[in-house]
Amino acid sequence: MVTKFWLYDIIIYIYALSLLFYFADAVARNDGAKRMGEGLLVFVWVLQTCFFFVRMYEHRYIPMFTRFETMFFFSWLLVTVSLVASRFFKLQFVVFFVNVFGFTVLVLNLLTDPGVVPLTRELSTGVLSLHVALAIASYAAFAVSAILSGFYLFLHLRLKQKRWTNALRRLPSLESLERHALQAALVGTPTLILSLSLGAVWLSFDSPVTALFTDAKLYATASILLLYGWLFVMKFRLRRPGLRLAWWNVGTFLWLLLNFAVANDFSEFHPWM
């Protein structure tokens, strides 16, 4: 076993097997492999949900506060989104790469401390739990948006080089990729704003709201919102081409990942991360 959590190990193994079936379908269209991959992915989602509730029952708080719990919940959200996309939007290649990213997050999570945080009055409030959940949900939406933009850049390059294959015929059009990427970003942006607002409400319970402006995390999050806001300005006001929007979207998500990895270390109000 890789970790002391046997259920976590099983999730990783089944997730990897699911990706192998998805990969087989991506290389050469195989409906049987696709169905097997989807079935295993549903099983992964069920096991992840069980792991979440078992941890919540054992430690008596909603497990979304440590780096380990945050990354696990983020991976669960990506699996959830990919299952919905597979069912309603027929974005099979996108579903595969969303799950590659989700699996990578789950494996990298093995490097984090799986410990729990002491249950305090502050951590037991529903406002804080909702604040964290919405922040992670916005990150998941931005991840999907960035992956779609990455596909846009890849497909645009292949079209420019006139290098066309049967596999590429299964990709959505450039217009569809751009539209879905913007829709995902449009979901993530107000979700992050709402999360930030709830964080301010939670802080006001014990501290003056002005204390929020001394926290590095606030400015990092504000920069992310400004970058995504400018993405919408470029699209709807300046009418920039899809290629420029895709590059901006991918770059903004890379900045978001850097913010997630570093900013919490300089935050007074996220000591559990």
From TrEMBL:
Q: Which GO terms describe its molecular function?
A: heme binding
Claim: Membrane is one of the keywords in the record: yes
**Which organism does this sequence originate in?**
Paenibacillus antri
| Keyword Transmembrane attributed | yes
How is this protein named in the record?
Cytochrome C assembly protein
Location in the cell reads:
Membrane
A cellular component annotation (GO) from this entry: plasma membrane
Q: Which UniProt keywords apply?
A: Membrane, Transmembrane, Transmembrane helix
- Topological type in the membrane: Multi-pass membrane protein
Transmembrane stretches in the record are 6-24, 36-56, 68-86, 93-112, 132-159, 180-204, 216-233, 245-263
InterPro entries for this protein: Cyt_c_assembly, Cyt_c_biogenesis_CcsA/CcmC
The primary location reported for this protein is: membrane
Q: Where is the Cytochrome c assembly protein domain?
A: 68-259
Please cite one Gene Ontology biological process associated with this protein: cytochrome complex assembly
